[in-house]
Amino acid sequence: MDKNVFVPTAVVLDSQFNVASTYPSSEFKLLEERGLKGSRLGAELNLTPAMNQDYIYLLIYTTQQDLAKTTMMPHPAKTYAKATGKQPPAINDIEVAHSLKGQIHINVTGSNGTKFIGLPTEIFSSNKAATPAAKTAIPLPIKENPVAVKTAVDKDTEAYFNQAVMKAIKAKDINKAMNLVNEAEKLGLTSPRQIFLKNVSSN
Questions:
Q1: Mean of per-residue pLDDT scores for the chain
Q2: Are the C-beta atoms of residues 178 and 195 closer than 8 Å to each other?
Q3: For residue 12, which of 4, 2, 24 has the smallest C-alpha distance?
């Protein structure tokens, strides 16, 4: 980060290019200079693609509203003093203008998250993105991760799997229903299996 900074807004799209989640610029926090990494804005997106999502897309842009603003950055002398264990000097921070251009660094891991991408719109409503001024779309390949997720899953997600299991059973697609049950259990959900056993045994 030099004389200006690119302030991002991020939108996550499913494989059909439907908006699944929006991360406004307020989600990107200032990360002070550390080691070889300069001061920058960063955020962590915890995403889990739904079934049949071979790709999801990440759209990154800045808005006209953010371009009109500035960001206060710590003076390099203060950052250096902190890094060397010294008392930071009593000098003013630097006001940095926002720019249309900037470097974007993305790190992708195989860990699952609690934000699901690609679920039906009648189950999840998505936020509308702000009007973009500059943007770039980046496809993110999906990596399989057999490790069960231990984080809490919201009720809408559980309702989605329950409905999807019922729909598959009614269509007599038992393999699909079983796959849905297995995916649900990776997320710590138990009700889809109960629904599966109850309805399969009654048919």
A1: 78
A2: no
A3: 24
